[in-house]
Amino acid sequence: MPNVAVYNMEGKQVGDINLNDALFGQEVNTSVLHQVVVNYLANQRQGTQSTKTRSEVRGGGIKPWRQKGTGRARQGSIRAPQWIKGGIALGPKPRDYSYTLNKKVKRVALKSALSSKVAEQEIIVVDEIAMTEIKTKTIANMLTNLNVNSKALIVTCDKNDNVVKSAKNIPGVGTAFTGSLNVYEILNHDKLIITKDAVSKLEEVYA
Q1: Where do the domains of the chain lie, and which CATH numbers do they carry?
Q2: What is the pTM of this model?
Q3: What digits encode the pLDDT tens for the residues 95-148?
Q4: Helix %, strand %, coil % of the chain (to 5)
């Protein structure tokens, strides 16, 4: 089992914890990680882009000139795609880019993402994040004490509005709780700061 140190919000080591191999000690499956990240990004797309075809552009109802005898190429409408201000040929239309993946694939990807953070020593376990009020300085001081000066994802056991709102104004810092944790957010941050309660809950659900 991987053994990592446990710190408090002041950056002092207060113990250590053995992480479950079934969740934090798996072989990293890059193929599955790629599938899940592509799926996540596709599901974020709004798909609202739209262009007008020749039938939707205003005007162009009359034939610009007669079919024969002018010496010019035949034309049926000034709103055909080859005309300036004409319709767009084969342009994008509103569509749904989302699709689903097998739950087993998502589980393997989450285990791979967490295991990669442990293998690269980019995971920091804290005993708790105790906040009685919304205060950005508290989170900023915690990051400084933990020597975190890059993009970091703070994971709590349950949704904590004080933590979420306090970290919101710090560039590069994201927040999540065990029920909303996703592979893309884990991989998109350099450091994973997670509470002991969150570790226990993840191991209970996924290990």
Answers
A1: 3-46+100-206 (3.40.1370.10), 51-91 (no CATH)
A2: 0.82
A3: 999 999 999 999 999 999 999 999 999 999 999 998 889 999 999 999 999 999
A4: 35, 15, 50
Residue 1 scores a pLDDT above 90: no
Residues in contact with 31: Cβ distance below 8 Å, sequence separation at least 6, in sequence order = none
Cα 155 → chain centroid: 14
Q: What are phi and psi of 4, to 5 degrees?
A: -125, 155
Burial classification of residue 188, based on how many CB atoms lie within 10 Å of its CB (0-12 exposed, 13-18 middle, 19 or more buried): middle
- Reading the block at residue 7, the tokens are 């710190």
pLDDT value for 114: 95
User: Do 6 and 15 meet the contact criterion of CB atoms below 8 Å apart?
Assistant: yes
Whole-number percent of the chain with pLDDT over 70:
100
| Maximal C-alpha separation, the chain | 93
Alpha helices in the chain, H assignment, sequence order: 21-24, 30-44, 103-119, 136-145, 161-167, 183-188, 196-206
